[in-house]
Amino acid sequence: CSGSGKIIKSPCKVCAGAGRVQRDRTLNVTIPPGVEDGTRIRLTGEGEAGLRGAPAGDLYVDIGVKTHPIFQREGPNIMVRVPLRMTQAALGASVEVPSIDGGRSAVKIPAGTQTGDNFRLRGKGFSVLRSQARGDMYVQVVVETPQNLSPKQRELLEAFRETETGEECPQSKGFFAVAKVERIIPDPIVADRYRHH
After folding, report:
1. What number of CA atoms fall less than 13 Å from residue 116's CA on the CB side?
2. Buried (b) or exposed (e) across 48-82, using 16+ Cβ within 10 A?
3. What is the per-residue DSSP string for the chain?
4. Which segments of the chain have a pLDDT < 70?
5. What pTM did the predictor assign?
6. Which residue from 130, 80, 129, 85 is spatially nearest to 100, judged by alpha carbons?
C-alpha cells in the first residue's frame, strides 16, 4: 500500500495502480520581452502529476538565446558595427542602420569620423525584463579602405596624396612623432652582469 493504508485488489492495467500514466504533450510558452540567456520561466501546475491525488508539480523552462550575426547584446543594450566608405567618413553622411525590430534608423555621421567612433540611439535596444524601459543601440563605425580602384579613382587618390600636409590625419602624425626613439647602446658593464656561465 506504500503507506496509504489501502491495497488495490484489481489494479488498473494502464497505470498498474499508480494512479498516473506517462504521456508527452506540447505546451505553448509565452516568452516575455527582455529575457536573457539562462532566464528560467516557471509554468505552475504543468509538471508531473502528484502521487495519490496530490496536485501536479511545476514545469521550469530554461531559455537559451541564440547569437545574432550582426547584433551583439550587452544587457538591455545592443551593439552593431557598421562599415562606412572612406568618403562618407571623411565628408560626413547620413546612413541607415538596421534595428532589432526589423526597421531602420538614420544615423548622422559627422565629417572626420574615425574607425571605432560610437553613436547612441536611445531606446532602440532590448526591452528590460518586467519593465517598460528599453536599452540603447550603439553604432560603432568601421571605415573601409577602398579596393579594386578604377584608373580614374586611383588618379584622384594620388592627386590627393600629393596635396597632403599631414594635418589631415593628426592621429598618425602624432603617433609617428612620439614613436621617434633614439638608438640606445647598452652599457657593456650591465651586459656583463647577465652573461651566462
Report:
1. 0
2. ebeeeeeeeeeeeeeeeeeeeeebebeebbbbbeb
3. -TTSS---SS--TTTTTSS----------PPPTT--TT-EEEETT-SPPPGGGPPP--EEEE--PPP-SSEEEETTEEEEEEEEEHHHHHH-EEEEEE-TTS-EEEEEE-TT--TT-EEEETT-SPBPTTSS-B--EEEEEEEEPP-S--HHHHHHHHHHHHH--STT-HHHHHHHHHT--PPPPPPHHHHHHT---
4. 1-5, 8, 13-19, 52, 173-197
5. 0.69
6. 80
Dihedral, 117, 119, 125, 129 alpha carbons, nearest 10: 80
Query: What's the start-to-end Cα distance of the chain, in Å?
Result: 86
**Alpha-carbon span 96 to 98, nearest angstrom:** 7
pLDDT in tens, 76-110: 999 999 999 999 999 999 999 999 888 999 999 99
C-alpha cell at 44: 505552475
What is the rounded CA–CA span in Å between residue 57 and residue 20? 13
